Amino acid sequence: METPIYLDHASTTPLDKQVLEKMTPYLTDIFGNADSPHAIGRSAMNAVDTARDKVAQLINARQNEVYFTSGGTESDNWAMFGGARAKRAEGKRKVVVSAIEHHAVLSSAERLQKEGFEVVYLPVNEGGRVALSALESAITPDTALVCLMWANNETGVLQPIDEACEIAHKNGALFFTDAVQSAPYIPLDMQKCKADILSFSAHKFYGPKGVGALYIKNGVKIEKLVGGGEQERGLRGGTVNVPAVVGLAEAYAIARAQMQENNEKIKKLANLYLREISILQGVTRNGDTQNALPSVLNLRFDGVENTAFLYKMDLNGVCLSAGSACASASVKPSHVLTAMGLSEREAKQSVRLSFGKNNTEDEIIRAGRLTVKTINELRGF
Ligand code: PLP
Q1: Residue 149 has pLDDT above 90, yes or no
Q2: Confidence check: pLDDT of 172 > 70
Q3: In the chain, % of residues over pLDDT 70
Q4: Atom 13 of ligand 1, residue of closest alpha carbon
Q5: pLDDT, tens digit, for every residue of 252-287?
Q6: Is 326 among the catalytic positions?
Q7: Average pLDDT for 74-103
Q8: Strand duo 197-201 + 174-178: pairing
Q9: Which of 182, 216, 242, 330 would give a disulfide with 186, using CB separation of 3.0 to 4.6 Å?
Q10: H/E/C letters for each residue in the chain?
Q11: pLDDT above 90 (res 326)
């Protein structure tokens, strides 16, 4: 079988070979439990310390502000539950989140509501951006936590996180941002970004799956989510996944070193695809194009069900998706697109293409031509 053309990098990315090489010794010879006091354990702990130092330096944070987790989902859950519950002690009982967050955040918000928190969902405009005026109206002195993602996973649209953070702080609330999608494309700098809590995940930037990080600003108190041993300074129990943590740090270092070059290349590929399909009528790009990641195109093909299109593209060797991979088993229309004002029908005619650093121009041209052919077929031309 010919290697498929992979245009689903917002779902996950392939592991970089250089990252695998860095991880391999910790999967084999240096297999120790990082908490064991003997030599093999100490070697493992050294690797964890080095990885934490590296990440902290790259994101301009302190070493003790970086916590390793099992991925973006755990980081998001921890931020939401840990942040909100810690603030409950101060009598704060409201949580404000955008309506377009990832399900890792939204499901936490729903469960917080069952715990007695009032949850307010912020609407977005037709470009998929949260209006700050909505946050200004929703926030009150009893708001524990405000959560606004840095970039949306379905549209790539960037959110006004600096301004939202300022509003949260003015009202005494914690500010959490999910940077899982933005991290491969926008440098994390925790001296510039004033968020109290920030999540990211290695597999979005060519690192391993099942490992992520949570930045928690020094002085910010959040409750633990995963209890057990005293790992991660007593805040996250469980034997540390040493090879994964080593992989995360290496992958993020590579992502930072290549960021500008990759962004330029990926933007060119996205534009090339748009050019290739420009002969098609009835194509709409969903989301604000001025404030967006370079890597994501969310497109609506008038009159074509996305499931039929994705199926045919897949049969012809092109992997892409309708939106969030976590929700792909769901028959519901995208909550992100419907929040932007698309009808259910329009949302079900929309697909997400997300380009990556290993894609070639030849692949994009082939994918573009196949798109034109497939859409024409499905429209019955
Ligand atoms: N947050 C966003 C915005 C995401 O796109 C994803 C994954 O798609 C997650 C959180 C969950 O991350 P993970 O797959 O590492 O659990």
Answers
A1: yes
A2: yes
A3: 98
A4: 72
A5: 999 999 999 999 999 999 999 999 999 999 999 999
A6: yes
A7: 97
A8: parallel
A9: 182
A10: CCCCEECECCCCCCCCHHHHHHHHHHHCCCCCCCCCCCHHHHHHHHHHHHHHHHHHHHCCCCHHHEEEECCHHHHHHHHHHHHHHHHHCCCCCEEEEECCCCHHHHHHHHHHHHCCCEEEEECECCCCCECHHHHHHHCCCCEEEEECCCECCCCCEECCHHHHHHHHHHCCCEEEEECCCCCCCCCCCCCCCCCCEEEEEHHHHCCCCCCEEEEECCCCCCCCCCCCCCCHHHCCCCCCCHHHHHHHHHHHHHHHHHHHHHHHHHHHHHHHHHHHCCCCCCEEECCCCCCECCCEEEEEECCCCHHHHHHHHHHCCEECECCCHHHCCCCCCCHHHHHCCCCHHHHCCEEEEECCCCCCHHHHHHHHHHHHHHHHHHCCC
A11: no
Residue 127: both structure tokens together: 């470009």
Is 80 exceeded by the pLDDT of residue 294? yes
For ligand 1, atom 12, the nearest C-alpha belongs to 72
Joined together, the tokens standing for residue 179 give: 């940077």
Shortest-distance atom of ligand 1 to CA 71: 15
State residue 2's pLDDT score. 79
Q: Which pLDDT does position 331 carry in this prediction? A: 67
Question: What are the backbone dihedrals phi and psi of residue 74, each rounded to the nearest 5 degrees, phi first?
Answer: -65, -40
Amino acid at 55: V
Please compute the mean of the pLDDT values over residues 118-143 and round it to a whole number: 97
pLDDT of residue 323: 74
Q: How far is the CA of 323 from the centre of ligand 1 (A)?
A: 12
The overall average pLDDT reported for the chain is: 96
* Pocket, ligand 1, Cβ cutoff 6 A: 71-73, 76, 102, 104, 149, 153, 178, 180-181, 201, 203, 212
For 308, the token pair is 């039929």
Write out pLDDT tens, residues 239-248: 999 999 999 9
Asked if 58 contacts 253 with a C-beta cutoff of 8 angstroms, the reply is: yes
Phi and psi at 159, nearest 5°, equal -105, 155
